[in-house]
Specification:
By secondary structure, this protein is mostly helical. It contains three helices and no strands.
Length: 87
Amino acid sequence: MPKRKSSISKASTYQEMGEFWDTHDTTDYEDQTYEVEFEVDLKSEVTYLPLEKTLSSRMRILAKQRGVSPETLLNLWVQEHLQKEAA
C-alpha cells in the first residue's frame, strides 16, 4: 500500500482524502490538528489587453459551450499559437 498522504483520513491518494473530507467535519478532529506556518510565492501576473467587443462576445459564447472561462480559453489559444510560432 502506498504511503499515507493524510494522518487523519488514513488516505493514500488525494481522491480518497477528498472523499473522506466530503463526508467529515474538521471540527470533529481539532484535537489531532496543529498550527503550521508556510510561505506562498505566487509568480502570476495579469495583463489586460483590449479586445474588440464582437470578438469578446464570440469568445464568451465559445468558452461557455466548452465549460471554461473566457480567460482560460484565451490563454489556451495564445499558448497554442505561441508554441506553433516557436516550432
